[in-house]
Amino acid sequence: MTRAEEFEAYLASAIPQSDRVSQAMRYSLLAGGKRLRPLMLLTALDDFGFEARRAFPVAAGLEMVHTYSLIHDDLPAMDNADLRRGRTTCHKKFDEATAILAGDGLLTKAFEMIAGSDLEDDVKTRLTALLARSAGNEGMVLGQCLDLQAEGRIESEADLERLDGLKTGCLLTAPLTGAAIIAGREECIKTFEAIGGKIGLVFQIQDDILDLTATSQRLGKSQGDADNHKSTYISMLGLSAAQNRVDDLWQQVDGLWNELPQPMPSLRALVEAIRHRDH
Question: Which CATH number applies to 3-275?
Fold first, then answer.
């Protein structure tokens, strides 16, 4: 069994299929996806020489928070989407109330996972605070709020970058800084924060480009940010300039690797794969 398969089995074992809400939680959590956030955490720990399997609970918590955000993002009050990870969205498969509760269940389960890990108590405390801050009203939730308020009204690229840094960047930075906390590599945190922030912007601009250029079947999720009057890099800059912005951000990321006190070859290879993603 590969470690990816081992992690999937661990993820499945974390939520027994005991009732309707648990079934909805499992339906969305185990639907696949890139597993990018847990992969970033575990791969960074590999490069640090830390036994990554000890961090499976933290990696699972990251994926649970991400999945909760997708369930709620797809709800009628938000994006009202029909498709996610190539499957019917949670509220369409079950019902809206069950989907809300499934998201709530995954969010709270994430912190239970961290608390139950065998990491040191001070590390678990810091990880809990990191995840809460990254996902909460100073991070992803604030970004989602700004996104809803700003539909069709963002006038500058700086405002759009702030929105996307919160909405997407926070949960892509948390795995990197979390790995540094777990491995006791405090000297890497600031550089990881810079790398994660830029990866978050790249990821969101790529999403905007793919929303325009790829099919829903290829993406595995509903499209239509333009139809929903969302402010995107395409609507603000145009396709060509948005692609140039991606190239510029990648050059900045390339420079930041040199600021780390040690090479991170496995993590860098994983991040490079993001550069060429097509869904």
Answer: 1.10.600.10
